Amino acid sequence: MSNRVFFVFLIPIAFTIALALPPPAAQAAIDQIQVSNHSSSSATISWTTTDFADGCVHYGLTPALGDTVCDSRPDDDLHVAGLISLEPDTTYYFEVASGGEINNNGGALYTFETTTVGIGIPYTIYGDLTLPPEWTLFTVTIKSAGGDMSHPLSTLIDSVAVWSLNLGNLKNPLTDDVFHYATGDSLFLRAGSGPTGGFQDSTTVSGMSPQYVGQIVMDVLPTNALPVDELLLLGGFPNPFQRTTTLEYRSPVKDRVVIEVFDPTGRKCATLLDQVLPAGNGRVTWEGTGLPGGIYLARIQAGSLRAATSLVLLK
Predict the structure, then answer these.
(1) Residues 124-159 pLDDT 10s
(2) How far does the signal peptide extend, from start to end residue (predicted)?
(3) Which pLDDT score, from 0 to 100, does residue 16 have?
(4) 8 Å CB contact between 61 and 87
């Protein structure tokens, strides 16, 4: 009789405990794995996840892997990891880990090859992003007149919304050597901010470096992005310029407005405006006297709002 009583009470107790267990943690599915910026000693691996998560790459010279490099930024749904100190002309194996999930290509692992030592002819392309998310990965690939495709080049852009890449770093996946581009070759441009949203377009190599390839608008705008009607910085007029250029701006709020210019290394080289202003439009002028030619960044800040544009100084 005592056994029956014990058995009757055991079932509801066990059932109650099962209901109290927390559900399994959702994993951040890994997608859009890409290898870019191939060189003789480095490579960049990027990927997206369905949720914000951490991100690491396990890699090595054999399927046993052995080395790890992680995305140094806070948890995100766009992940970028740079591998350095690699051996030239060598095959590397890797897998990607994020949010408790590992993507190892179904157990076969992913691979890429470093290139032979070599540097191509420098050639700068650059552009602007409008409505930028906090982080965007911009990727460029070239197709030659003969149909050859280069390895992709990529750069990670933050909310300042300007990017540039050097076509001299392009590599040929067929020969693992320098990719020889030419005027008229096709440039394929792609920007992505995570598993959704992005931009794709194409143009051609003009033969005049630095080459401005235009302003890009992301198709899908994350909730943390800056709406275009919040704060604008337009210019310069002219751009490219040799001596003086004019920037126009519009602030939607009364606040302290700061406009600064940064050189290609990120060093601030000029403050064009720093004062409390009412909401409205205005303009400022910048003289690049005494500065070397190159791509400069002009940035405006009004309270917590920011926007930016790039300026090309010709010498």
Answers:
(1) 998 887 655 568 888 999 988 888 889 999 998 876
(2) 1-28
(3) 36
(4) yes
Tell which of 217, 246, 263 closes a domain. 217
Contact 219, 191 (CB under 8 A): no
| pLDDT at residue 132, as a whole number | 56
Name the phi and psi angles at 168, rounded to 5: -65, -15
- Any idea what DSSP says for residue 131? S
* Measured distance CA(83)–CA(69) in Å, rounded: 7
For residues 212 and 128, membership in a common domain is answered with: yes
Specify if 53 maps to a domain.
yes
Last residue in a domain, options 79, 113, 147: 113
DSSP string across 18-71:
HHHSPPPPPP--EEEEEEES--SS-EEEEEEEEEEE--EEEEESSTT--EEEE-
3-state secondary structure of 193: coil
Residue 13 has pLDDT above 70, yes or no: no
pLDDT of res. 216: 73
Residue 226 inside a domain? The answer is: no
Number of domains in the chain: 3
- Sign, Cα dihedral of 51, 55, 60, 63: negative
- Hey, what amino acid is at 178? V
pTM: 0.64
What b-and-e string marks burial along 263-291, b requiring 16 or more CB atoms within 10 Å of the CB?
beeeeeebebbeeeeeeeeeebebebeee
164 within 8 A of 125, measured Cβ to Cβ: yes
One domain, residues 130 and 164: yes
CATH number at residue 176: 2.60.40
Q: What is the pLDDT of residues 181-239, one digit of tens each?
A: 999 999 988 888 777 656 778 889 999 999 988 877 664 433 333 344 457 776 666 77
Are 188 and 130 found together in one domain?
yes
Asked if the structure places residue 103 within a domain, the reply is: yes
d(CA 278, CA 136): 32
Where in the sequence is the domain holding 243, given as residue range(s)? 232-313
Q: Is residue 10 part of a domain?
A: no
